[in-house]
Amino acid sequence: MRIPRPRSLAGQLFAMQVVLVAVIVAGCALFAYVTDRSQAEDTARRQSQATAASVAGSPAVAAAVRAADPSAVLQPYAERVRRDAGVTFITIMAPDGTRWTHPQPGEIGRTYLGHTEQALRGEIYSEKYAGVLGASIRTVVPVRDPADERRVIALVSAGITIERISQQIQEQVIGLLAVAGGALALGGLGTYVINARLRRHTHGMNAAELSRMHDYHQAALHAVREGLLMLDGRRRIALVNDGARELLGLGGNAVGRPVTELGLPPALTGALLASEPRVDEVHLTADRIVVVNTSPVIGGERRGTVVTLRDHTELQALSGELDSERGFSHALRSQAHEAANRLHTVVSLIELGRVDEAVDFATAELELAQELTDRVVGAVGEPVLAALLLGKASQANERGVELVLAEDSLIDDGVLPPSIPARDLVTILGNLVDNAVDAASEAAVSGARPGRARVTVTARADDPAGSGGELLIRVHDTGTGVDPERAGDVFHRGWSTRGSGRGLGLALVRQAVHRGHGTIELGTGPDGGAQFTVKLPLTAAVPA
């Protein structure tokens, strides 16, 4: 036997709301019925009292009571007043209860059915009593002697039957039920419309399914290592997972904040605010390189955006290291080629019998090759920087650029703290030297800077034992420099003197400097070219 599927959440709410509306309408109808009945009886009592008092106070009634045949005078009068007043009966009687008037003439002369004791004492008395015409609301009023107000000479009773009151209430109840039915139908229709919309939004799922989906949703958000960001129609953060918080450096109060208030780089903010999809765009934050994909959400009252973020920092760093290794390999191959050429020259001189010239040539070449190596190894004890400088020197020499290490450069081995990883040093110095070699080479080829193209590097650790020690890296070239008006743009992703969309190195340099809690400045060097100065503290900084 197939177990029936639980009713959807929208269906459950619809049933509950219909029952609730029905109960409210029924309760209001019952309350109105009870109230109307009570008000109807009160109205009947006041109407009968007013009618009886009016008849009892009439001088014609007091005069007719003394006549030989009171009924002959009072019966037509009582019937006329009864019809005009809208009551069921008006009975005028003697003090002993003998009727002089009645709607049914056959009852004239018979004894009145009801209580008259209080009326005989001069009081007005109302009661509910079953008489000849049935149960009624009636009032008995005394008729006083005009000559002696203390003497009761007759009694007047006016009343409205319960049946008549019930008939009036029934007419009101029919109208009330019609209104209640209309209210129930209108409430049911409104409930159906609202729940139909709810059913569309919940896709017909019941409460258990929605709860289970929410649990899966939360588990997936925390399990996915990639960053996930959801923006609403106003470009505010509607949802963010742990990965996105880490990649973008967001705090715990990020949900509900506009993207423009997150303090992200302008390019990344523009990508998040864009209405068109973005595919595998590389953006830089203060500490990371992220790959951004955005997709608009279609449907609903407002459009939102789903953003996925992938951490590209490690991959970019590995790519930079791989480029450096390739450069080293290329430099080694070049050096091997040059060494083979020089070796052939030496061998040829020996074969020609010019041994002394061969020795002089070989000695000069060794001294020239060893000079830079000795200078770098003697000044820079950090092996990563030393190897990088030697490799870059070979690459620069191939392009006709001389790489010079400044005389005041000095970094002892073991001075650099763990807060400055070797990978960041390779990123900073490697990109600065590459850019300087490019600028110097282009200036020399174009003739803008005649003479030998040169790049000068300063690497110095000042006061390494003190609390204020810092690592200084300065690179300047013989290129044409940077336009001062564009100095603020050089560190943005995509900036390059060769055209937009190509530069990434200086943006990576600034990011590495930021991770080391240092500073980077752009100025003009002694040779007129660009000069970049990086300062990194040698003591670990405490994040603010």
From TrEMBL:
InterPro entries: HATPase_C_sf, HATPase_dom, His_kinase_dom, PAS-like_dom_sf, sCache_3, Sensor-like_sf, Sig_transdc_His_kin-like_C, Sig_transdc_His_kin_SpoOB. Its EC number is 2.7.13.3. Its main location: membrane. GO terms for cellular component: plasma membrane. It is a multi-pass membrane protein. Keywords: ATP-binding, Cell membrane, Kinase, Membrane, Nucleotide-binding, Phosphoprotein, Transferase, Transmembrane, Transmembrane helix, Two-component regulatory system. One of its GO terms (molecular function) is ATP binding. It comes from the Bacteria. It catalyses: ATP + protein L-histidine = ADP + protein N-phospho-L-histidine. Residues 297-540 form the Histidine kinase domain. Pfam families: HATPase_c, sCache_3_2. The chain crosses the membrane at residues 12-34, 173-195. Signal peptide: none annotated. It is found in: Cell membrane. This is histidine kinase. It comes from Streptomyces qinzhouensis. The lineage of its organism: Bacteria, Bacillati, Actinomycetota, Actinomycetes, Kitasatosporales.
